[in-house]
Amino acid sequence: MRRKDVVLMATVTSFEELERPTKSELRQFAELFTPLFQASGDEARRQAVAALSRSLHIPPAVAFFIASQPVSVAAPFLIGSACLTDEMLITIARTQGADHARAIVRRENLSPKVIDALVGLRHARRTAPGEPAQDASANRVAGAEPTLSVPAKLADGPEEARLAREEALRQQIKGLAAHLNRAPGDRLGLRSLTEVQEALLVRFARERDADSFATTLADTLSASRWLAERILLDVSGHQLATTLKGLAMGETEALFVLERFYTHLKDVIGDTTRGQILWESLEEDECGRHLEAWRRADRYTYAEPVTPTVAETSAPQTEKRVAGLAPRFRVAR
User: Fold this and answer.
1) Closest by alpha carbon to 294, among 187, 215, 220, 204?
2) Cys-Cys crosslink for 160: which of 59, 126, 148, 155, Cβ 3.0 to 4.6 Å?
3) Does residue 129 or residue 49 have the better pLDDT?
4) Cα separation, 115 vs 93, whole angstroms
């Protein structure tokens, strides 16, 4: 194994020294790299990937192979390599899961095409090995409680019956735990952020890119751009805080976002900040209800009439409807 590690690093170092590798050299590197990489240890793999993430001449097949490795190895390449095309990034995000998508979000220059793909990406909730494929949300849709596990055959005696009851009880407890400790995307029908959407919102807040933030927020809410902008225009930060808590964003990330857009929330009061006071004053369930009410009002405002008339579709009339609706978005304090 040690010998393979040395050969892998020597191969990578030799390739790095080539300023303009020829087609023959690229082909030779592609043929050598994959078997050497697979035969090497984890540390050698990480070092090789970190070194290649700075190269501008990685063959496409090798670039895709590296990007598809576990994120503990592939992260530097996903974040920094200039050899990954938009199509590769989108494919990796869709096929490799949330960890790879989060690494891609950290790239300095993401094209609108990749951003759109990441925003719209939905990571299906994976069922843990050994657990029933049907989750608590499916049971709620059916109006049932979490399902008990039924033994494959009837118990033959008192001992078998006791074991069967214990197993059924364990399954019931697991089902109740899954019901109470819901995943972020399973909050009794309330809308929640995906991991990719949260990462994008934090990224755009860090850059104070209000335009991209509003676009991502509108997509997250499945609402109009007008609603997202209306939320951001509340200079107190109260409506954005309500929105982020209603979407179940974590406190650390939410406070970072709020303080980037509304700097007065950084002000220290005693042993806390204005932002923390605002955040702790909000109840998640109530925020979720406010958010759904805003979304319904937004949907009514922008829904097309069944039989539109010229007057109904004119710009001045639309502006009147929007102006008349604005007070609905005031959050009760």
Assistant:
1) 220
2) 155
3) 49
4) 11
The secondary element (H helix, E strand) that includes residue 273 is strand 272-273
Q: Running DSSP on this structure, what letter comes out for residue 191?
A: -
pLDDT recorded at residue 169: 56
Number of domain units in the chain: 3
- Spatial neighbors of 186 by CB under 8 A, at least 6 apart, are 125, 135, 136, 137, 192
Flag whether 160 is in a domain: yes
pLDDT tens per residue across span 306-327: 444 444 444 444 344 334 433 3
Going by the DSSP 8-state scheme, the letter that residue 266 receives in this structure is G
pLDDT at 77: 94
Distances (CA, A) of 222 to 147, 215, 218, 298, 303: 32, 10, 6, 10, 13
**Residue 140 lies in domain:** 136-180
Residue where the block lists tokens 């023959």: 24
Q: Is 247 part of a structural domain of the chain?
A: yes
Task: Specify which residues 187 forms β-bridges with.
Answer: 190
Do 307 and 265 lie in one domain? The reply is yes
Residue identified by tokens 């009439």 is 305
How is residue 304 annotated by DSSP? P
The per-residue pLDDT for 302 is 62
For residue 74, the model assigns a pLDDT of: 93
Angstrom distance (rounded) from CA 113 to CA 296? 29
Is the predicted pLDDT of residue 181 greater than 60, yes or no? no
Residue with tokens 């991991």: 195
Comparing CA positions, the residue from 231, 46, 36, 199 lying closest to residue 110 is: 199
CA angle 137, 138, 141 (to 5 degrees): 90
Tabulate helix, strand, coil % of the chain (nearest 5).
Answer: 65, 0, 30
In a domain, 300, yes or no: yes
Both tokens assigned to 265: 């929330």
pLDDT of 7-23, one tens digit each?
888 889 888 888 888 88
Cβ atoms of 262 and 236 closer than 8 Å: yes
